[in-house]
Amino acid sequence: MKPDLFTFVAGIAVERGDPIPITCNCDSVITIMPPLQEELVVCPNCESRIKLLVLTGDPGYVMGRAPTGEPILIPVQGSSPEKLAISDEERRALLEKISKDWGNTTH
Ligand SMILES: [Zn+2]
Hints:
This protein is α+β, with helices and mostly antiparallel strands. It is about 25% helix and about 30% strand. It has one domain.
């Protein structure tokens, strides 16, 4: 079975042991309970299989690439609200930095 989607989960949330709400691409929320028994959850609404990738600590966001090739920030679910609440300005600055870094490594 292959996962359809994947999402990032913050390690601190797993260690804390509280239920973690995972938002699917269809906006349904699936609540998972640590310790994670399954690294795949199935969305009850759209039946997507979602693979959970646990990242250590409290990363807030990770960088990713949109299908268009544009850098995007992917929220790490379960990160602390302070880490996730970045202003538009901070978001823009981060994306600019990412574009620059990628530009440097690919040329
Ligand atoms: Zn779904």
